[in-house]
Specification:
This protein has 97 residues and is mostly helical. Helix content is 85%, strand content 0%. The chain contains five helices and no strands. Helix 4 runs antiparallel to helix 5 (71-95). The termini are far apart.
Length: 97
């Protein structure tokens, strides 16, 4: 392989990796919404409701970041919202036992 070609070969690979990072976090946003919706139906304790509101606030933060084109921030906030909602649902299930 010519030396020039071997130098240029990593460029398309780097561009592909960069493009993958720059995509909107559509799946993470959807996952967070679904987790929040599910948690919302199981909340009965006021403390859980407060944590659910925190998850909803994180989702709103993700939506704002998404609209601003800050995809990494949107992804992180959406994933945090999902984790928080899953914790709420687990706590609500434990309280129901």
């Amino acid at each position: 392989m010519p030396r020039t070609l071997s130098r240029l070969l990593p460029l398309p690979l780097l561009a592909a990796l960069w493009a993958g990072c720059a995509q909107a976090p559509v799946q993470q946003m959807s996952d967070a919404r679904q987790a929040i919706d599910t948690a919302r139906t199981s909340v009965t304790v006021p403390a859980h409701l407060e944590q659910l509101r925190a998850a909803e606030a994180l989702l709103r933060e993700a939506e704002v970041a998404l609209e601003a084109g800050r995809y990494q921030a949107a992804r992180e906030a959406a994933e945090s919202a999902r984790r928080t909602a899953l914790e709420v649902r687990a706590k609500a299930a434990d309280a129901g036992r």
